[in-house]
Each structure stands twice: as structure tokens, then as C-alpha cells.
């Protein structure tokens, strides 16, 4: 007697087989073809998105700045731009004559915060690049000095001390010397100083294109000294002059006065307390009384060392005047003069005016003829502030040139995030489409 299970098996075995589906093969082929086409389309879209983002980022980093033709004369730019913190560096390679140096925070994809940096502005192409100077201490107050002709950059060296270094003064790296980098050849001239706790950098300016004026002190104690002993430095030498090519390095000149500036022609200018100018060639020193004014870092000495242009007044901006041994002139310019920048010959003064009614404050470099009173607008400086040592003052005699806008790279983290997001979205869409495309 058969069981229910056996009878059900017999019925299933005797049931007629379903006829084959004639479209099954075609439908399967169409399904696989749609999947291949969809996958290829998504992959192509991902590639296009990646190429577009990379291409746009590359274009942002490298705008249409044409290489300078051989023999191109250097010039100051007709406009200064605020540099991007993501600009590339020069990797120690020569960049040619520089028009200016701009202190700017520098960022990279591998670091979370910003670090100090200095941007070099090319005087032949207008390109902006961070300068990768070997062992740069990145001293904030007087960290870099551009020669008047724009061919050399002086800076403070970071290195090792013979004792405990002093870092409590706010200097992130210990200063142990001074160096000169040749922007046209990439050569570096170094002068190391043996110091127990590190140097206190004070003055760093060019007397002329071949002589650097420098002054430093020595920290008295290191970080391991008691709090009661912290602070203070020692300098028993005063100003030193480094003649390029001199193997001895900077040589003391027997002057301990506070240096306020140079004219780039071999003359040094000192604080109003002395009201004096020193000719490095002859050693002669002239003195005269100036109108009461704090003109440190905002004055310009004439090429022959006989006149000082500066903004007069108790507040800055002030009024542009010119002082000589015979006295002080009437104001030449009354409106918003922030600083005198330099001289073009013995008759023309370049100066900076700042519009303080807008935010951020915008600066303009102008010139005025002392004989005719004619004013000429030279450069849109924007947020750039010309100070002693950051402008190639010899180029004031050349008509400023219209350069292309410099590179403005994107944050590489944003670019990487956009690329990753594009790929992720494409993969998610492909996964969902493949599921919905099943037969």
C-alpha cells in the first residue's frame, strides 16, 4: 500500500514538462548588455568628473602666465594680489629677479594648520611662489630682506646652539646665523654664528645691491634657566656690513645706533634721536633736526643721502614732507600718506596712500615730482604694505607692468573630497541601477 508521499512523487513525475521559453536567451543577453552599457556609462562619467576636477585644479594652480622672453627687463607689477596659502614652492630652484616679498601663511595638504611663509613675486613674469629657503628661521619681524635690484634675498638661519636654546621669546626656530640666497642662480651664502642660546635678530637690510647691513644679539639664558633670569639679550658689537664675496662674513663698522633704513645706494639712516645719515663709502655722517614724527619704517632717503621723505604728523596716515639739513618742507601731499617708499632720481618721491574708509584697507603706490608737484599713480598695492626690505626699490624707475593674475589654487583637501564624493555617488548609483535592472 503506497504512502501519500509516494503518490505525490508519482504525480509530480508524471506531470507534463513546461514548454521552453523561446525568448529566455534573448532576454538574458539584453539584460547583460544593459548592465555592461550602464557600467561603462557610469565609469565614463566618473572619469570625466575626475578629469574635470583635476583639470580645473591644475588650471587654478597654473594660470596663463607666459614665460618671460630672454632678456626681458624686470619691472614692478601694476597690481599686487593677495597670495593664496596653497601656492606651490620653488623647491630651492632659482626664480629670477623678484619685484617684492610678501609674508603670508602657508598651508599644505599634510598639515592641519598654517606655518610662516614668504612669497616671491617675479619681476619678469608676475608669478607668485613660496620661497623654499634652506634652513629659513622664518623670523617674523625682520625675517627677509630683498636687495634693491631684486636679485638676492637675505634671511636668518635656523640651526643648533652650543647650549640650551631660547624659545620663550616667541621665535619658533632658533636663529644661529644669516644667509643670502641668489634668486638668479639659487646659490646660498651662509654665515653661521657660534651661540650658546641662540641669536636675537634685530636689523637686516641692504645698504646697496652688494652690501648687507645686519645686527643681532645673543640670548642671555636658555629655556632651562629660572624664570627670574629669563629675558634679555647681549650685543657689544652693533651694526655689521657683509660685502658679497667676503669670506669673513659680516664685519662690524663701530655703529650701535638704531637703524631705520637705507637708500639702497650705500647710505644708512638712523633714528630721529640722532637725526643722522651715514655714508658707508666715505664714513661721513651728517645730522640735522627733523620735525617731530615717528617715521621709523615709513621714510625714504634720497639717493645722495641729503633728504628724507616721510609722513609727518602724530597719526598715520599723515602728510608727506621732505626734510633736509636746511629744515622741513611744507606738506607735499595732504591726504592719507602712510609711508614714503623710495626715490626716483633726486626729484621724485614714491609714496603709499591708504584708503582707510574701506575694509580691508586698500593701498596705492604713487609718485610726486618735487619740482612740478605732478602726481602719478603707479601701483594698486591692495593689502600689500611696502616696508624696508620687501620691495625692489631700484625698479621704481621702470614703468610698472601689467602681469596676469597669479595662481589661486584650491584647498587640495576640498579637491580630494570632491573626487571621492563623485566616485562614491557613482558607485552607489551603479549598485542601485544594477539591482533595478535585473529581469
Question: What structural keywords apply?
Answer:
439 residues, alpha+beta, eight-stranded antiparallel sheet, five-stranded antiparallel sheet, 3 helices, 17% helix, 31% strand, elongated
Describe this structure in words.
The protein is elongated and about 135 Å long. The chain has helices spanning 4-14, 24-61, 412-436, and strands spanning 98-106, 115-122, 128-130, 144-146, 152-158, 175-182, 188-192, 199-208, 211-219, 233-234, 240-243, 251-252, 259-262, 267-270, 276-279, 285-287, 300-301, 308-312, 318-324, 327-328, 333-344, 348-355, 362-369, 375-382. The strands form 5 sheets. Strands 17, 18, 19, 20, 21, 22, 23 and 24 form an 8-stranded antiparallel β-sheet that branches. α2 runs antiparallel to α3. With 439 residues, it is an alpha+beta fold. The mean pLDDT is 81. The chain contains 3 helices and 24 strands.
Give the overall pLDDT as a whole number: 81
Supply Rg.
34 Å
Low-confidence stretches: none
Helix content: 10-25%
Strand content: 25-35%
Instruction: Provide the structure class.
Output: alpha+beta
Strand count: 24
**Tally of helical runs:** 3
First CA to last CA: what distance?
46 Å
Biggest pleated-sheet summary? 8 strands, antiparallel
Order of helices and strands: HHEEEEEEEEEEEEEEEEEEEEEEEEH
- Apparent shape: elongated
Could you give a short description of this structure?
This protein has 439 residues and is α+β, with helices and mostly antiparallel strands.
Amino acid at each position: 500500500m503506497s504512502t501519500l508521499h509516494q503518490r505525490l512523487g508519482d504525480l509530480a513525475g508524471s506531470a507534463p514538462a513546461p514548454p521552453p521559453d523561446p525568448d529566455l536567451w534573448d532576454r538574458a543577453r539584453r539584460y547583460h548588455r544593459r548592465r555592461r552599457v550602464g557600467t561603462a556609462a557610469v565609469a565614463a562619467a566618473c572619469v570625466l568628473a575626475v578629469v574635470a576636477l583635476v583639470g580645473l585644479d591644475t588650471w587654478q594652480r597654473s594660470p596663463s602666465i607666459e614665460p618671460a622672453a630672454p632678456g626681458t627687463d624686470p619691472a614692478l607689477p601694476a597690481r599686487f594680489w593677495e597670495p593664496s596659502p596653497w601656492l606651490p614652492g620653488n623647491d630651492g630652484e632659482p626664480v629670477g629677479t623678484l619685484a617684492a616679498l610678501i609674508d603670508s601663511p602657508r598651508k599644505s595638504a599634510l598639515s592641519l594648520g598654517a606655518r610662516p611663509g614668504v612669497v616671491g613675486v617675479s619681476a619678469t613674469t608676475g608669478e607668485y611662489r613660496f620661497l623654499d629657503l634652506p634652513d629659513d628661521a622664518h623670523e617674523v619681524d625682520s625675517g627677509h630682506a630683498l636687495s634693491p635690484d631684486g636679485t638676492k634675498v637675505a634671511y636668518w638661519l635656523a640651526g643648533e646652539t652650543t647650549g640650551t636654546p631660547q624659545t620663550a621669546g616667541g621665535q619658533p626656530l632658533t636663529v644661529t646665523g644669516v644667509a643670502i640666497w641668489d634668486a638668479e642662480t639659487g646659490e646660498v651664502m651662509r654665515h653661521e654664528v657660534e651661540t650658546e642660546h641662540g641669536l636675537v635678530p634685530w636689523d637686516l637690510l641692504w645698504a646697496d645691491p652688494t652690501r648687507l647691513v645686519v645686527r643681532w644679539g645673543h640670548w642671555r639664558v636658555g629655556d632651562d634657566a629660572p624664570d627670574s633670569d629669563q629675558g634679555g639679550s647681549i650685543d657689544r658689537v652693533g651694526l655689521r656690513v657683509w660685502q658679497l664675496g667676503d669670506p669673513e662674513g659680516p664685519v662690524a663698522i663701530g655703529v650701535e645706533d638704531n637703524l631705520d633704513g637705507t637708500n639702497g645706494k650705500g647710505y644708512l639712516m638712523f633714528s630721529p634721536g640722532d637725526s643722522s645719515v651715514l655714508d658707508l663709502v666715505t664714513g661721513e655722517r651728517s645730522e640735522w633736526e627733523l620735525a617731530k614724527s615717528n617715521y621709523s619704517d615709513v621714510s625714504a632717503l634720497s639717493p645722495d643721502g641729503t633728504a628724507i621723505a616721510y609722513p609727518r604728523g602724530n597719526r598715520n596716515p599723515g602728510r608727506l614732507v621732505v626734510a633736509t639739513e636746511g629744515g622741513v618742507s611744507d606738506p607735499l601731499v595732504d591726504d592719507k600718506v602712510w609711508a614714503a617708499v623710495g626715490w626716483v632720481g633726486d626729484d621724485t618721491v614714491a609714496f603709499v596712500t591708504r584708503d582707510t574708509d574701506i575694509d580691508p584697507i586698500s593701498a596705492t603706490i604713487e609718485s610726486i615730482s618735487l619740482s612740478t608737484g605732478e602726481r602719478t599713480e603707479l601701483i594698486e598695492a591692495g593689502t600689500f604694505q611696502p616696508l624696508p626690505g620687501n620691495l625692489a626699490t631700484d625698479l621704481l624707475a621702470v614703468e610698472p607692468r601689467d602681469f596676469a593674475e597669479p595662481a589661486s589654487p584650491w584647498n587640495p583637501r576640498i579637491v580630494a573630497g570632491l573626487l571621492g564624493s563623485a566616485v562614491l555617488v557613482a558607485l552607489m548609483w551603479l549598485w542601485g541601477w544594477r539591482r533595478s535592472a535585473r529581469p
